[in-house]
Predict the structure.
Amino acid sequence: MEQIVNHTTGYVHLIASTIALVSGTIVLVAKKSTAFHKWTGYIYFVSMMILLVTAFLIYRLFNAWGIFHYLAVVSLIKLLGGMLPVWFRKHVRHWKVLHLSFMYWSVFGLYAAFASETLTRIPDSPFSVMVAIATVVIMLGGGALFSCKKASWKNA
């Protein structure tokens, strides 16, 4: 069986992604605007930054820049899109809605990456098909939930 992690960068990536999955899920379900939300949110942010840095250092799959590197750029944009309104809230109109929206999609992007990583490890599975299935299913489910939640955020 193929080894899941082959080097130190991979181990750091795995640990950071696990922390991000747990803290991101907690941030999504926990009460907003509390010290716990802020603390857990920063754990998510830092673990995601570590995850993204290590993602840009892993080239084992394609031996070059690949689809997951492009998706890591998208993930970085969502992550910063969620944090910049918080850091510059005095200058950003509707900063809470921007923060909640971008961070929500950041976490769901992480879920899609996790599902893609998991499904592509099924023996003899078609790589691109598994990535597409994982991403579409997670993002469609996330979109349905997002449309329900966003209305309540406007009052936040």
About this structure: The chain has a mean pLDDT of 85. Residues 127-153 form the longest helix (27 residues). Residues 8-153 form one domain. The helical segments are 8-29, 35-55, 67-87, 95-119, 127-153.
